[in-house]
Specification:
The chain has 134 residues and is mainly alpha-helical. It is built from 2 helices and 2 strands.
Length: 134
């Protein structure tokens, strides 16, 4: 038998002939994994015990309405801030994208305007060089 805690800490395997006894003080919140291995059919009773005062204190922390209300207000304010940050970042990226597209169009026009004269000038120079050399 072995127990794994929520933070992935592996406890040692406990083994025995016909019985194995484990006693852990589980202090983390989350899902624990209990692994058992046997070559024969095995009965696996789990006995849970708890400290009632700590249980009541833990449950009351979740049900405290005043604290929950202030936490909810904080979460809504944070959500609102994130929403505005997202909207403004999308707006800014859209503006940057439009600016980039305009610059690309201008560059394309520049290349189109000056490529044809450059090619024609090179052809004329090549023809003149041929006549001058001969």
């Amino acid at each position: 038998v072995r127990v794994t805690s929520p933070c992935a800490t592996l406890y040692d395997w406990k083994s025995g002939d016909r019985s194995a006894y484990l006693n852990y003080n589980l202090t983390e919140n989350g899902v624990y994994e209990i692994c058992a291995h046997s070559n024969a059919a095995t009965r696996f009773p789990l006995i849970f015990s708890y400290n009632e005062a700590q249980l009541i204190e833990g449950v009351s922390a979740y049900t405290n309405l005043e604290k929950t209300g202030s936490n909810l207000k904080t979460y809504v304010v944070r959500l609102n801030e994130r929403l505005y940050q997202t909207l403004y970042s999308i707006k800014y990226s859209t503006l940057a994208l439009t600016r980039d597209e305009k610059q690309q169009k201008y560059n394309t026009q520049y290349v189109e305007r000056y490529t044809l004269p450059f090619i024609l000038l090179n052809i004329i120079i090549a023809v003149v060089q041929i006549f001058v050399i001969r």
